[in-house]
Design a protein that fits this description.
By secondary structure, this protein is an alpha+beta fold. It has three helices and 15 strands.
């Protein structure tokens, strides 16, 4: 169950001299205007940063999932499947492969518009160059965004994934790197994202992905121009059970977000399937926030 920290404030003793009362009131007014001492109604920037981060992760991880599913199919790997069901996101895309199961290029072409099962509209191409079978240690691939859009948000750049798993552990481990991937919104505003993360695929029944554990860092700037640096301080956990209930954000883990002159931590909870996070600022003030999907 997610809980909020209890916030206490020390009371200042009253002064016997009016001049000290006046000085105290001025100091209180000045402190209340400092952006580091925020109340719930002035936490918009923090909540906005959480939403921007969630949206960036969702759109880029969405590409990682589709790529993994197609590599699983095209390279003939066994085990580590995302799902047993056909992926509806790819149902209206044209997919071509050149090369062999060991190395080659896969192009996922969404054309002028391909609407997925959750209403997301994808356009353009994902170009995957791979070497080795996806689930074998030492394999790697790149994903290039070619005139690619999701919900009219353009994504440009390169995503590189290396399989750094150890044989016999039963866990697939992938190192993901992206540098200055550019996202452009329909209004022309832009954000950049650099990511260095590890993604652990823990498999359950029938070798399906049961738990995804993610840790590492991300940095760049949001579409409002504010720079940010993110560090996952307790691994983020995504579960198949919660995803089946429509929960696509982590359900466990803690991350630190520095944006502008502010810093917050975001606590995703203890595994309960919901979109609720607890945001805590540097003053120790905490509040619950429902993240939009």
């Amino acid at each position: 169950m997610k809980t909020l920290k209890m916030i206490t404030k020390e009371k200042k003793s009253a002064s016997h001299k009016m001049i000290w009362v006046a000085i105290g009131l001025l100091a209180l007014i000045f402190t209340s205007c400092n952006e580091n001492n925020i109340d719930a109604d002035t936490s918009i920037e923090d909540q906005e940063s959480v939403e921007f981060d969630n949206q960036g992760d969702y759109y880029l991880d969405d590409v990682d999932e589709m790529t993994s599913i197609q590599l699983e199919k095209e390279t003939g790997s066994s085990g580590g499947k995302i799902s047993e069901e056909p992926d509806g996101r790819l149902s209206c895309a044209q997919i071509t492969r050149t090369g062999t199961e060991e190395s080659g290029t896969i192009v996922i072409d969404f054309g002028e518009g391909c609407t997925g099962p959750r209403g997301n509209v994808r356009k353009g191409k994902l170009v995957i160059d791979y070497s080795g079978r996806r689930n074998n240690p030492g394999s790697f691939w790149t994903v290039e965004f070619e005139d690619y859009f999701i919900n009219n948000i353009s994504i440009k750049g390169l995503r590189t994934v290396n399989n750094i798993s150890e044989n016999g552990t039963g866990v697939l481990v992938f190192k993901v790197d992206m540098v200055n991937v550019l996202l452009t919104w329909p209004d022309g505003k832009q954000g950049k994202r650099t990511v260095h993360r590890i993604r652990e695929h823990h498999l359950g029944d029938n070798n399906l992905l049961d738990r995804l554990i993610v840790y590492g860092t991300a940095e760049g700037n949001h579409r409002n121009g504010r720079g940010y640096f993110i560090e996952i301080i307790e691994p983020l956990v995504y579960t198949r059970e919660c995803k089946q209930q429509g929960i696509f954000i982590p359900v466990e883990g803690v991350k630190s977000i520095k944006h502008g002159n502010r810093q917050i931590t975001v606590d995703y909870g203890d595994g309960e399937c919901d979109n609720i996070v607890v945001i805590t600022n540097t003053n120790g003030k905490s509040w619950r926030h429902e993240v939009g999907n």
